[in-house]
Here is the input.
Amino acid sequence: MSEENSANNSGLFSKIENKFQIAGIGGVAFIIMAALLVASLAILNFGGTGSDAKVGKSMGFALFALVSFGGVFFYLGNNLPIFKSYLGGGSAFAVVAGALVHYLHWIPETSVKDIYAFVSTTNFLEFYIVALITSAIFKMDRDLLLKAAVRFLPVAFGAMIVTFFVVSGLGALLGLGFGHTAMYIVFPMMAGGVGAGIVPLSGIYAGALGHGANSGAILSQLFPSMILANILAIIGASLLVRFTDKSKMNGHGQLLKQGNDADAGDNAPKVPAMNAKQLLVGMMVALSFYMSGALLTHFVPKINSFAFLIILVILVKGLGWMPSYYETSAIMFGNLVTATCTQALLAGIGLSMLDLGALFNAFTWQLAVCVIVSVATMAIVAGFLGKLFGLYPVESAVAGGFINHSMGGTGNVAVLSASDRMSLIAFAQMGNRIGGAIILILGGVLITIL
Here is the structure.
């Protein structure tokens, strides 16, 4: 009788394990892990003095929490009818749900701080992006990469210029004023995120307006348009890709039109089966470029280290200096990081870096109209210019349009993940970082004029 009960229980457990797969983990195992997370969060919230040191404030706790939250959010987003079909699926849901959980205080603030420290302060996000950039560039065909890079930048910058005048003019018509709209709505959306974007931008404004080092009040005015634009860019990119799936405008992840040269992409590196030795080598290759970019930024501080990193990887790839073993190792490592960390990272972005409170507090219908028009204008112009420059309009609209309304590196990952265009990360970062630097320069000049 006991053997029969055991067999029945085993069968039930197997059914649950196979029926529900969350982040690759079977249902029963994930329920146990989720219970551990709930218990840890309860201790952090109610455990009293000294409990934080044992349960929270560690990379292990933050990673465990992010994988758990990310797995649940992605599962829900990929299965809820409206989200999976029209609103970006698991990628968009992970960001929005994470932000909502934080806004509603469903998890302790200490846990949010631990997650933020892991994602941002200890630079897990940078680690992820470095792996992604090196992998994305090295896996491309060399000739296509060089041709695409030369054509992409004019598209991205052209879209920014047109959008600046359209939205600033619209703001003037709505009673916000041309200058106010430009400085406090348009520029924050295009500044390249938080740390390298609106934070230095607020400092520039504060200095020009005579506020000294007190830029907090200005920073709070720059957040709302950036947050709303980021959410709309995620949803917009996902919808665009979905509704143009069978269109000739959709390159299905490929930016440059190859014309009649159907074999042009056949020279892309062939990556062998994943193995531990090459994963370590690939990590060191990616981090070598990261260190090189950081060193160059030390000597030329006005240029972002990611800009140097992208230039170096494109240069090495374009000149064929990287031996195939190291090239495929970097690709392999990037593939591993993307497959294992994307869900956790997007949940972390929502939980710790997307402030819905700031958006709700500053929300006005004029702001919403300006942001919606800005996101739509930049995507349309980038797609149109992309077609003129021989790029696929859909990919051009995503990498040169929607991306320039994202929250820097975090937003890039969210937009590209929602639109299934992670292969465009190098171009996204290129336009985002260089464009953001230009915005900071223009902001310093125009704040005194407008």
